[in-house]
Amino acid sequence: xxxxxxxxxxxxxxxxxxxxxxxxxxxxxxxxxxxxxxxxxxxxxxxxxxxxxxxxxxxxxxxxxxxxxxxxxxxxxxxxxxxxxxxxxxxxxxxxxxxxxxxxxxxxxxxxxxxxxxxxxxxxxxxxxxxxxxxxxxxxxxxxxxxxxxxxxxxxxxxxxxxxxxxxxxxxxxxxxxxxxxxxxxxxxxxxxxxxxxxxxxxxxxxxxxxxxxxxxxxxxxxxxxxxxxxxxxxxxxxxxxxxxxxxxxxxxxxxxxxxx
Length: 261
Description:
By secondary structure, the protein is mainly α. The model has no long low-confidence stretch (mean pLDDT 84). The protein has helices at residues 5-24, 28-40, 42-51, 54-64, 70-91, 96-124, 137-157, 161-171, 175-199, 205-227, 234-260. Helix 1 packs parallel to helix 10 and helix 6 runs antiparallel to helix 11.
């Protein structure tokens, strides 16, 4: 087994990402994406982000399958499938640096959007989120659009979670059912991505060495996140998550753009 200090740094980021995953059912890959792909490169970083999730996704799926919104799960998968196939194709046709720019830009945009929603609006403008607001055609179109775009992003980079969440968080209101439904989405989509990456030769010894170090660190974060699910105030937690996303996504976007220039 070959050792690289980058494996440790990437593994430490998994603790943060999988803590979020254990609490919310999404976020482990997107939070760590900038560090993982920045240090390992997208050819290793993207399959790393896919494969490292699988044991934890399967564990939680077996544990919580009775508390899943199966109707919403079916809708999500049906609308994501075309995007997944498009995203799989895009991953093998764009350059690694272009991929990093895309990942950084997507993560930054998602973070900015949610920081405005969860921090700026309630804390600066004193505008609490409106409960039971009318569900307009524009809102529905936006949610379904995010869901389909999330399929493309997930197929290409395995970081479609925040976009797919835009739909799911409105459809599944209960906190634990939301987490369990999101987890089942990743069981299906990440299993397909892992199979597709394997048949395209992405599972290399270098990837295996990185995963051997990353798995124990991911486990620490995941089980801590599950333990704290009931103890962390949701809004406070999400504010921290989106600030971390802004930092890692913005850093990757800027450094990748500078490399191009």
